User: Fold this.
Amino acid sequence: MNVTTLPKPPRVGLVSLGCPKNLVDSERIMTKLRSEGYAMSPDYAGADVVLVNTCGFLDSAKEESLEAIGEAIAENGRVVVTGCMGKEAEAIRARFPQVLAISGAHQYEEVVAAVHEAAPPIPSPFIDLVPEAGLKLTPRHYSYLKISEGCNHRCAFCIIPSIRGDLVSRRPDAILREAEKLVAAGTKELLVISQDTSAYGVDIRNEVRQWKSRDVRPHMTDLARELGMLKTPEGETPWIRLHYVYPYPHVDQVIPLMAEGLVLPYLDIPFQHASPKVLRAMRRPANDAKVLERIRGWRVIAPDIIIRSTFVVGFPGETEEDFQYLLDWLEQAQLDRVGAFRFEPVEGAAANALPDPVPEAVKEERYARVMQLTARISAEKLAAKVGSTLDVLIDAVDGDTGGATGRSKADAPEIDGEVHLRDAGGLKPGDIVAVRIEESDEHDLYGVPL
Ligand code: SF4
Assistant:
């Protein structure tokens, strides 16, 4: 009988100092490491690396932390330091230059990355709960990549900042490492998400990191370029799709990356309205009166660019004139994909206290008008694609009919249209195929693989 011998897991020793909050941090770090197959070591001698979670509240606590680091170095030698004293990395390095890595409180990703480096995890399909690419709720061929949490804005209709707090960006090398793993595990399309993708990195703007021996700033442009340089196991560039991009001036720098083929020519910009008066009342960020001009400029650089957006109708105080302004703006902007919502008060949102609520019947009527206009624009744009050849990523195949459903570069999963294929036998989800487009309707395309 053949018996598979499981690999011996790397062992981590832990010294946790300070208050209960620090203890909770230690628990979170160890939970993550345990889920990756690490074992705990009860003593210095048996540990492959020792983690010292420090306290820096009082001078006496700092001294105790330094003593603990010194003891771990003397007893084991391979030491990673984290916790509140991480703010004083220079003082620690001055006394213990051999420390492998130092990070501050709550910097879970940094600590875990430092442990990975000091004692690499050994993946094993027999014991890992989490596959190498992490747990996914999406099909294998596309994955969401979250780059930050929270938001610095305070839009009047939104309660996200009060629930999730201000923007906290992930470090760029950690995002790129996750993206690289996902692509190695079969992801063909990465969907970059956050509450405000253009604001990525403003909270950690000086924290330049190394990735593949290159400096990467925590900035949307650097991140997008590096994501576009990843390669699938077949040597192809994965599709990189940017969601929730606010039109800050620096977004203009991403458009050339689309023209170069590093990032999909697709921008999801939640404009929410066009009337300057309504946008002010909504307290929307990047409320730029020249946005139409900029969209024209983007289309010159990347002619295939697809712009998707969402709009709210019936916001308190929206007059017929404001709404007509939105319709005129949409006619000029010729956006490719549009979703619309009727304003709804959400418990805790500042907008609830605004005067002049719009009656429900008027909201309904405006919603119908905006949908009618944007469906017409979408149908015209899709009709112009009939006769062309597009790359399509297959999402599902239908064995009974021999057909398949997929998406072109213009279509994000779940929210945009689809491409329906006939005579698609032999294809499987995750394939990217050239498709000749034969027909169109308001939202979808129909074609045949070449
Ligand atoms: S709607 Fe406004 S406040 Fe809410 S997450 Fe988006 S930008 Fe932030």
In short: Residues 151, 153-155, 158, 160-161, 195-196, 285 surround iron/sulfur cluster (CB under 6 Å). The first strand starts at residue 11 and ends at 16. Residues 360-383 form the longest helix (24 residues).
